[in-house]
Structures are given as C-alpha cells and as structure tokens.
Amino acid sequence: MTVVTARTPFDMATVQRGARLRRSPFYEATQRYGPKGFTVYNHTLFPINFDDFEAEYWHLLNHVTLWDVAVERNVEVTGPDGFRFAQLLTCRDLSKCAVGQGKYVLITAPDGGIVNDPVMLRLDENTFWFALADSDVLLYAKGLAANAGLDVRLSEAEAYPLQIQGPKSKDVVRDLFGPDILELKYYWFSRRDLDGIPVIVTRTGWTSEVGYEVYLLDAARGDDLWERIMAAGLPYDIRPTGPSDIRRIEGGIFNWGADMDYRTNPFELGLDRLVDLDMKADFTGKVALRRIKAEGVKRHIAGVDIAGEPLGFNETKWTVHADGTEVGRVTSAIYSPRLEKNIGYAWVPVELSRKGIQLTIETPEGTRQATVVPMPFVDPGKQIPKS
Q1: Same domain, 330 and 191
Q2: Most buried among 94, 123, 180, 244, using CB within 10 Å?
Q3: How does DSSP assign 158-195, residue by residue?
Q4: What is the mean pLDDT of residues 203-217?
C-alpha cells in the first residue's frame, strides 16, 4: 500500500503569469486602488474584487461602482457583407436591430450549441461589435468566414469597456456627459468625447442594476478615463469593484463557461426569445435548432433555493440527486444577503425542473435540501435595469 505524506497545499498565487497574459488599459489605474485578486479572462488579467464580496454587493445596490470589463474583448465584423456574416453568427434576427442599438445575442454552432452570449452593438449598416464572454470566438468566426464566401473583415476592435453600475450611476454619467445622456434608452448607445477621450456610452451592464458601460476607443487614455470617472463619482461614493456574482445570480444572469457552453442549447436555458427560426436569413445552427424545438428538450436549467447556513460561491459543479439518484449539477450557487438564503442554478431533467420539486445537493458543507423555484430570484420583470 502506498502511503502519501501530507504536504502544504499549492499556493495558487505563485501561478506563472508572464507577458502572454494581456493587461487592460485600466490595469495601472486598478493597481492603485488595491485589488485583492485577479483571474484570467479572454487571455487578459481581470481584477475580481477590491473589498469583501458582500460589501461590494451592498455598495452596488445602494450607491455606484466602477468595474474594469475591458476583458470583454470585442470581435468586429465589417465589410460589404458585414450584415450577412453577423447574421450568420447569431440566431437572433439582426434586421430588427437599428444602427445605434445593441442586443443580447447568442452565437450558435452548427449543432445548435451556444458558442458565446455577447452583447452586440450595431455601429453602422455593416459593422457590428460582439462583446465576448471568456472564449475564442474570433477564431471561430474566422473559421466560419473561410467557408462563407462573403466579403467580410474580422478583427478585435480597439474598444475597452468599463461599467458604471448602481442606482447612482445616472448621477455620475450625467455629470460626465451632460443631462442628455439620460435620454439614452436601455440597450442603445451614443458616441461621446470626454475631455478629448473618445468613447461609446451604452445603457447596458452585467449586474441587473441601473447602469452604463463606457467603451474606451483609445487604449492610451485608459488611466485618464478611469480617474475622470472616479473624480465624477466622488460625490456619490463611487468605488471600484469586481463582478458581483451575488447580484447576477439574483437577476437570473447566466455565465458562459459555467452555466452554459457549446454543449447546451437556447431552449434548455429558456432563452427561446433569442431564437428567430422564422426569419428568412440563414444562421449557423438553424436546421439543428428547428429539430431541437420540434423534438423538445430533455433537460432544463432551473432556479433552486438551497437550505441551511450561508454557502460560499461554488468553485466546482455540485452533484444534484433526486430520490437517491444522481440527476444533474449545480453550476452557480451563492448566499443572497437580502433574500437571506442560498440560491443557484441546477441542470436537471425537464420533469424535475418544475416549481416546488425537491432535490438534494452535495456541497462542500455537506448534503443540503433544495427546492426548485422560478428565476430571476429578484425583479423578474427586469424593471430595475430599465428604470
């Protein structure tokens, strides 16, 4: 029998970094505010928090936060056939998206799987930006273009977004850009010049709160833009933060790579509204998605309330059981301070995704009972971000 001697766990802080990992234009600015941790997202260093996660959550709910999301690299589609190729990428009908408007879209694979779920901006008739979750969509798009027979150019746009989020975000952007910026409708955008810094301001965010994104169009001005926003936000107690997983789970926002990927399809996620099977234009995966819809799906992602003491954010996918049989996985779970309960998402068979179904979940803190509940957990009509 082999005897293993206990050793000190590996210190993840010593993981090699190196020049192959990119830094955002705001990297130096964020360093001055004391980030407590980084991850790597789209090959770029990404600050994940500057304070306790719960403290950042409450600040988002009550004040205003600034968040470096330049890691959401934008794939630019342009050229004479830019519209036709952009439509080939996504199952949402882009003819319904005006110039100056954005849409939440799904990029689909030939088998109907989800390659990514970006926010897309339409800059002109044939130019589109797709702000990506952590993946290599530019390579996927280049492969698709190689066989599409279309006159299109693909690149990574020089566009680096920051998010200004929270109930006082309107005050900050008003002071930065003037009162007319408040006329910007949800998911629309406007080109602006901020003290000589070229930007695009969008009425979007990944928080389910009122918010804006400011896309920097000149990487050399990253430090200037960051400090200009912080100065404008000082009267409103602005603070830099990382992503709030508590708030995005409360709001029913999925995280590509954790809650969905190329092995899941829109109908399993309840994202039917993003699939326009009746449009005349073709898109990748159209045949497969028609078949999937006709046949019906066998599993769904479901919201769950998890009993017991507060749980930390899951670092692995927890096993789900029903009547002693393994039936699925929890992909995101966390304690919601305002709801005073643990909430999350679980992939389960369709018959176990109905409200009130009882499940058992294996967590690092032991076995917990769970109940299937509707999503989103907070503000199901999405009135807060639209307000």
Answers
A1: no
A2: 244
A3: S-EEEEEESTTHHHHHHHHH-GGGGGPPTTBEEEEEET
A4: 98
304/291 same-domain check: no
The CATH number linked to 206 is 3.30.1360.120
Contacts of 140 (CB under 8 A, 6+ apart): 107, 115
pLDDT above 90 as % of the chain: 95
Q: Which domain holds residue 321?
A: 298-376
pLDDT tens digits, 137-188: 999 999 999 999 999 999 999 999 999 999 999 999 999 999 999 999 999 9
The number of folded domains in the chain is 2
* Token code pair at residue 331: 């992909």
Amino acid in the structure at residue 132 = L
Q: Is there a domain that residue 387 lies in? A: no
Tokens representing 28?
Answer: 């130096």
Q: What percent of the chain has pLDDT over 70?
A: 97
Q: How far is CA 117 from CA 40, 257, 274, 323, 386, in A?
A: 18, 10, 10, 34, 20
pTM over 0.90: yes
